[in-house]
Structures are given as structure tokens and as C-alpha cells.
Amino acid sequence: QLQLVESGGGLVQPGGSLRLSCAASGFILDYYAIGWFRQVPGKEREGVSCISRRGDSTNYADSVKSRFTISRDNAKSTVYLQMNSLKPEDSGIYYCAAQRTIQRMCVTTSQPYHYWGQGTQVTVSS
Question: What's the rounded Cα separation, in Å, for the pair 42 and 1?
């Protein structure tokens, strides 16, 4: 059974850091681009970052560029999102999602992604 499980969320002060993990099971991660998305109540889900199946292409939302870094370890079937210099507006539920693709690129729109995790809560507050 294909499954994505996020972890690493929590409460952090502004300016702090968190590293989110997305662990995949039940499928070969090498065939999938992975995206990170976040959502807060009352707002649309926002694409935060993505990484291509081989890790040679990444994209970031303008709001997180230079602060967040996405990476992947296909041998461990895990994708990471390192979040630095966190701001209160980064708060939300963070989801990872998988898109099976042959493309050597990725997108931060949610429509192409077929499989989603349950999410992990990130709260940035003093």
C-alpha cells in the first residue's frame, strides 16, 4: 500500500528552524517527483517546494526562497524540507505529495500529485 508519512513539525519561535521529513513506503520513490504544500484554515492550499524524481531540479514559492531547502534520499525513501528563519506566516499544516512522472522537473501546483500524506502541523509563534 502506497503511503506518505510526514514528521518533524512542531512549535518554534520566529527565526527558528525545523526539518520536515516525508517517508514513503509501498512504492519506489525514484519514479516520483515530490512536493511540499501547506494549508491554513480559510486559505487555499499553497505549494511550498518540490523536487524532481532524481533531485536535479527544485522549485520554491517566492515566500520561502533562500529560507527553505528541499532534498531527497531515494535510498532511504525520504524527502526533507529544511526550514530556516521561520516566520509566523509559515504556520500551517504541511503535506507532502507524490507525482509519478518521467519528467526531469517538478511543479508546485497540487493538481498533478496523486498521493498525499496526512500532514504535520507547524506553528511559528513567540
Answer: 32
| Contact between residue 120 and residue 60 where contact means Cβ atoms under 8 Å apart | no
Task: Please say whether the beta carbons of 87 and 55 come within 8 A.
Answer: no
Contacts with 36 (C-beta within 8 Å, 6 or more apart), sequence order: 20, 22, 47, 48, 49, 50, 70, 79, 81, 94, 95, 96, 97
How is residue 85 written as a grid cell? 528563519
Q: Count other C-beta atoms under 10 Å from residue 124's C-beta.
A: 20
Question: What integer is the mean pLDDT of 28-53?
Answer: 95
Please give the Cα distance from 23 to 6 (Å, whole number).
Answer: 6
At residue 107's C-alpha, the angle toward residues 95 and 21, to 5°, is 30
Give per-residue pLDDT as tens, 76-101. 999 999 999 999 999 999 999 999 99
- Judged by DSSP in three states, 75 sits in helix
* Sheet (strand 3-7) strand order: 3-7, 18-25, 78-83, 68-73
Taking every pair of C-alpha atoms in the chain, what is the biggest distance, in angstroms? 43
